[in-house]
Amino acid sequence: MDATDDLEALYPVSRQESSAKYQESTLTTESAHARSKNSSFNFKPALSLFLTASLVLCVGIAPSTSQERKTPRTITASGKGIVNIPTTLSQIRLAIEVAGKTPASAQQAAARRSTQVINYLKTQQVDKLQTTGINLNPTYIYSNGRNPEITGYTATNSISFRVTNDRAGAILDAAVNNGATRIDGVNFIASEQAISTAQLQALKQATQDAERQADAVLATLSLKRKEVINIQINSASTPAPMPLAQESARAKLADATATTPIVGGEQQVEATVTLDIGY
Questions:
Q1: What count of other Cβ atoms lies within 10 Å of the Cβ of residue 178?
Q2: How far is CA 144 from CA 46, 139, 141, in A?
Q3: Across 6-103, where does the E strand assignment appear?
Q4: What are the tens digits of pLDDT across the range 171-189?
Q5: Apex CA 128: angle with CA 115 and CA 256, to 5°?
Q6: What span, in angstroms and rounded, lies between the C-alpha atoms of 74 and 279?
Q7: Average pLDDT, the chain
Q8: Residue 139 forms beta bridges with which residues?
Q9: Residue 163: how many CA atoms within 13 Å on its side-chain side?
Q10: Separation CA 160–CA 226 (nearest Å)
Q11: How far apart are the first and last CA of the chain?
């Protein structure tokens, strides 16, 4: 019996069992290494999940912080601005009215007279010259117990133009001498540039007025004005033309020797502004 046989006699374990245990030990060691690798590989997804949860938590907190902010306190004030400007222009409306026995004769007579008036006005270089109306109407006679009878026809051509006040009187006189039979109206207006400038001035005054009102209230309550939060321009009106009394125009036609005086007045431009001011 050799040395190997002696060892097998002392430790009765077969070679097959030893080999199996060695293989099992090797597999156990490899599995441990594999688990260690897998554990190291899964660390990054876990970290990513942790960061995502933290971000969601932070975002969820933000709205509650904004909700805690107080709504700004405001005071609302409306101001008004008024600017008066002189009227330097006259808007004049004339009519040429002619009667005739037949429609054709009345219309032709009105056309001739209208052409004569318009040609004169063109030589005076008036502004915004235009025809505003052409009418032809029958005239009737009414008798008791009888149907109305046509006795003739009336043709009317209406024109309008604009001229400076200092020239309006002389032009009116000459227009009547050239065939105009009726003055339908004279309105005094300011120039478009003057109205535009006045509107801006009125808006400025309205804004300052609103600020003064707000400051007066806040000062009474020992509060301080902060920034303007909202501005609303309610209106910046265009003034209506000022009419000349019709009696003056009729008096001129009744007295051919008089010179028509034309004196303009003032127009009023208004604006209102509303401010929401924090305090």
A1: 16
A2: 114, 17, 10
A3: 74-86, 89-100
A4: 999 999 999 999 999 999 9
A5: 55
A6: 6
A7: 80
A8: 152
A9: 23
A10: 54
A11: 113
Query: What residues in the chain have per-residue pLDDT under 50?
Result: 2-4, 7-11, 13-16, 18, 20-22, 25-29, 31-34, 36-41, 43, 45-47, 49-61, 247-254
Distance separating alpha carbons of residues 78 and 173, to the nearest angstrom = 49
Q: What is the DSSP letter of 274?
A: E
- Containing 16, the helix (H) or strand (E) segment is helix 15-41
Residue with tokens 């004339």: 94
**Rg, Å, the chain Cα set:** 50
Residue for token digits 């009116």? 172
Measured distance CA(96)–CA(182) in Å, rounded? 6
Total-model pTM: 0.62
Question: Which amino acid appears at position 125 of this protein?
Answer: Q
Residue with the two structure tokens 């609303």: 232
